[in-house]
Amino acid sequence: MAIRCVYTDLDGTLLGRGASLFRDADGAFTLLPARALEACHRAGAEVVIKSGRRKAQVMEDARLLGQTSYIYEVGCGLVVDGDEWFLTGELQPTPEKTVHELIEESGAPRLLLDTYRGRLEPHAPWHEGRQFSHLMRGQVDTGEADALLAEHGLENLRLVDNGAISPKETLQELPGPPHAYHLIPRAASKATAVARHMQVRGYAPEECVAVGDSREDLDVAGVVARFFLVANAVERDPSVREAIAGAPNVEITEGRNGEGFYEAVVRSLAEAR
Q: How many whole angstroms separate alpha carbon 88 and alpha carbon 17?
């Protein structure tokens, strides 16, 4: 069956060093990500970016790629041809307050930052100007963090691991590379947003593939036919192999970042029936 849609993460997946479409993981110039996008266009496959970034950033990236659908703030928001959905369950924005402000008022961000002081901090400056998620960085156990939230009556929220990031001077005592974390409504996820986009477009799971570099991206494997984890995800977090054990539709690419995206696209298009 033909591939009708490719869902891809941005940072650490489609984009290389410096968040550039034309740089590989080491900073060398590459055209492979752009060629993969061209291959999708020629095959009639839509490309949808799914990111933890703010709406304004993802919207501009989608425009540059010539796409009219995008997923932002880890699945809290979805835009399709100008129509928008807030996939945050019962926690919805009001005329007076954003979901970000409602989460702030709940005390959840301060609870996490105080509990994990020295291991978790705001992911400055990208934590500012957000509509939904509170963006942090560090190294914590998300299951433990979610249990902490539940103990304080905040079970409608969860802490999402959105992948390893570059080392930070303010987090020198961590046993490994810091990760980016998003505190979001429990109802929201990249997988939920992908499933909603598929529903809006009328795509069947067997017509869709996805590419990513984080544990949150991995959940998308449950709603598409094939999921590709780019090689740099495993290099930065070898334990992610445990998360994909027994998942028959998850594959690890040989290439990193955009080269891994290229590999995923070429293989998917070539093997589609």
A: 31
